[in-house]
Amino acid sequence: MAVEVINQKTAKYFDEWGDDYSHAWKSVARRRLSEFETGLVRRAIELAFKNFGGGCLKTLDIGVGTGRITEVFLDYPVEHYGIDVSAVMVNHCQEKFKSVEKIKHLVVCDIVNPLPGDWGKFDVVSAIRVLPYTPQWREALQNIYQTLKPGGIFVFNFPNKYSSAIIPKVVRGGKDQSCASSYGELRRVLAEIGFAEVKITGFARLLDVFYARCDSEFSANILLTVEKFLRAVFGPTLFARLLYCTCQK
To answer: Is it the case that residue 171 has pLDDT exceeding 50?
Structure first.
């Protein structure tokens, strides 16, 4: 079942990426970043198993892309659903996972809209690299909260408006901060929506161009050593480019 896509600009952007989106994660440094993100999703899934006492979890991946996060869910006993604003990305995943029985639905859908009514509630929801492309991100968070069962876990990331990447652009007048937030603002928004527990950390203070170009183990290790040093100096979130949130309903 497909519903109206509000963010047509975002849909077009990812339609144009198509299968090439997977190539964006091929450098060694970006693979390390991907491992950090998938690790967060794994911990969210494991926390949900603890909350719900094992068995089969009902899970939702928002922004399926080429299946990077969906593959993490499939390592567990799940009944899995996925959505994306990009028809190209959904078609890619439908073909990639066509023989996977754990996957119940993969459809074009914009999280700004309510999900199909017959999908019910979820134990775990992920939205990795989705809300940065969603100007109506507050409305999206409200919708996501409504999709979760009590005790359900939601994991996502969001640009930090006080990051080393955004501040210089804002000073020059060239960066719209509508799709960026801060540690304090995110905590307030999530609490107002109703999330009972919120944990926020950060990753990557250095510019993304370094992650794209560090394509050897040696250069990636140097990059991540610098990142660890900056984290030790500034703490887990200050100046981090991306804030990663794990929330419980």
So the answer is: no
Distance CA 123, CA 107 (A): 19
Secondary structure (DSSP) of the chain: -----S-HHHHHHHHHHGGGGGGGG-SHHHHHHHHHHHHHHHHHHHHHHHHHTSSPEEEEEES-TTSHHHHHHTTSSEEEEEEES-HHHHHHHHHHTTT-TTEEEEEE--TTSPPPGGG--EEEEEETTTGGG-TTHHHHHHHHHHHEEEEEEEEEEEEBTTSTTTHHHHHTT----TT-B-HHHHHHHHHHHT-SEEEEEEE--S-HHHHHH--SHHHHHHHHHHHHHHHHHHTTTTT-SEEEEEEE-
Domains of the chain as residue ranges with CATH: 8-159+177-202+241-248 (3.40.50.150)
Pairing of strands 122-127, 148-159: parallel
> Tokens 């652009």 identify what position?
169
Q: CA geometry: angle at 60 spanning 19 and 154, to 5°?
A: 115
Nearest to 73 by CA among 52, 98, 94, 103: 103
Distances (CA, A) of 248 to 43, 122, 232: 13, 12, 27
Across 12-31, b (16+ Cβ under 10 Å) vs e yields eebbebeeebeeeeebbbbe
Q: Tens of pLDDT along 229-249? A: 999 999 999 999 999 999 999
Looking at every residue in the chain, the average pLDDT score rounds to 91
Q: Say what angle helices 87-96 and 8-17 make with each other, to 10 degrees.
A: 50
Structure tokens at 58: 């009902």
